[in-house]
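URGENT: need a sanity check before tomorrow's submission.

F., can you look over the LIM zinc-binding domain-containing protein record below? I want to be sure the sequence and structure line up before it goes out.
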Amino acid sequence: TAIAQNINNRSGTVYLCSKCEEPIRDRFVLKVLDRSFHPHCLRCVYCEQLLSSKCYLKGGQPYCKDHFYKQFGTKCSMCDEGICPDMVVRRANEHVYHVSCFQCIICKRELRTGEEFYLIPTDGRL
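Structure tokens as predicted:
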């Protein structure tokens, strides 16, 4: 996680934007680690959402929280989609599931806490 610092550029220092490589002549400069951005240039590489206060970096690329965890976070054992840390999940042994994915593979009924189920050991299906 990187915090995008909004630097008040009263000193007149000219920074180069890490995305568009143009000089930043705005009053405010977004700084992420050692890189500078125009406020309109710091965007998630996946969805283009503006990242004005917090971003996640991987391979030098900025991501919004949702897309960072979808790409690089824990994956659901049923659908293989990413799981964000603030999502409610179900766990079985070492497997993690979205609540809606914690279901019987035959009848598709969502399983609840305390219900008995059989876990297919090779692939984590229920």
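My own read: Strands lie at 2-3, 5-8, 15-16, 23-24, 28-32, 35-37, 54-58, 61-63, 89-92, 95-98. The helical segments are 65-72. If you see anything odd, call me.
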